[in-house]
Amino acid sequence: MHAYRSHTCGELRDSHDGQTARLSGWCHRIRDHGGVLFIDLRDHYGMTQCVADPDSPAFKLVETFRAEWVVRLDGKVRRRPGGTENADMPTGQIELYITDVEVLGPAAELPLPVFGDQDYPEETRLKYRFLDLRRERLHKNIMLRVAVVDWLRQAMKGGGFNEFATPILTASSPEGARDFLVPSRLHAGKFYALPQAPQQYKQLLMMAGFDRYFQIAPCFRDEDPRADRLPGEFYQLDLEMSFVTQEDVFAAIEPVITGVLEHFGNGRPVTKNWPRIPYAESIQKYGSDKPDLRNPIVMQDVSEHFRGSGFKIFARLLEQPKNRVWAIPAPTGGQRTFADRMNSWAQGEGQPGLGYILFFDRAKDETSLKDNPNATGVGGRGPLANNIGPERVEAIRQQLGLGAGDAAFFVAGDPDKFARFAGDARTRVGKELNLIDENRFELAWIVDFPMFEYNEDDKKVDFSHNPFSMPQGGLEALQTQDPLTIKAFQYDIACNGFEIASGGIRNHRPEAMVKAFEIAGYSEQTVIDRFGGMYRAFQYGAPPHGGMAAGVDRIIMLLANEQNLREVALFPMNQRAEDLLMGAPSEASPKQLRELHMRVNAPEK
Fold this sequence. Notes:
The chain contains 20 helices and 22 strands. By secondary structure, it is an alpha+beta fold. Strand 1 and strand 2 (36-43) form a beta hairpin.
């Protein structure tokens, strides 16, 4: 017999009754039932109930076992007594009667339990991540990750893509985040950068004629952590294609994303025909460029109903041409208590509050009937309704398609400044009123991103998305249009309120590339210095090409029904970008610093 096991802990079945077996694993749970010891023995493959009674020659040693000890158990497989079977376990029809044991690895007192799914402080979980990963939910999430990555690889190869590995040590690149820098020992004072994305390399592969590239690519960005982005590093399904239009990229990736969600989504519906939503429309309707389309609320511009009205705050704001009033419909939200909750939330977000109108049935409202016993129709109440009058209230109600028992909330000012808050309010209303169908995947393409934006901090025009994308209208648009009006062939995939992929058709003409960077404040020489490889490649026959990258971590997070990416990553950092398990970042030794020709000039604490 093998030194450690004849079977795994998930393998034994009713058909093994009467056979001798050897199992090795962790003591998941130990129970003492009137002198009879039950051990749930766990390994990667499953769990088996093992039994020792006072007649067992191993009983005395089994009594010493504690949670998470690693042990070898020999014994006889037998059917469980009638009525004690466990239909929820694949091995639930049998148990192993223990005849011999060996302790392979005793365990100290645990800093966090493995049995159950108690909520423990993140610092403890990450410091003892190897224990955290033994827990069933985390173990399943990681194995889901393995299966998803394998499925994506097969899907891409089936689509004619070839997998290429691109360098990890590279040059710094303005991808929109800070680089992680690696000092060079051989070239004093110079640094490599870890790639924020394989952007330049995958484009160079197109220059080299490889036509269809993909990679499950590690990406490194020195960004402040967020719940939907891992600090330090993350993985993306990266792809690039030659001789393609935007539609070709859509046709290649849409079935891959739909397929992975259908395959691993446990029957949750997935959008069949993805809508195409222009960026500006997405911001106006949903307050976000990654809208959660499971939420049925669509915001509308209702400025004209307040222009010149008795609600002077909004009326005065609308005297400025750029200012608008947006309405957030709230079906079933027509209660004063709900309006008060939304106001309190808005104030907690640093806003003065939310204007609202509550719609009611006049024929069923006591206050309304006192004033007019023959009242009919739908009325509106609240400070806004009182100031703008019944005709405007009714016009707003008709535009929003609301009825008695519903409400509408309002935000006003410059949409560029309030759109994000309005989108958060839309999300809040949808969640509070249980309007969101959590059990589905709603996907959409967000298209027509602006090529440039105005950077208020630096008082200059800057790239708003990927700097290597082709402007709509090409070089002529860059030469003749106001930069802030130019749209780009850039696109994102939004799913359930997350951006899960982003890409674009590339600017492969060197003169157009130089002009685009000039508009953003970079000289031609800067382009040559920082992107010399691509600039040179464009001089020697560059094919039209484009691609995108999908966030592997985010896709798995959605499939696993988790709210935080750290629940689907093996060894993540904490919110301060620290690896508590390995002790990173750590100080370099004086010898290491001398070899790198460096000194540390840390700020005073």
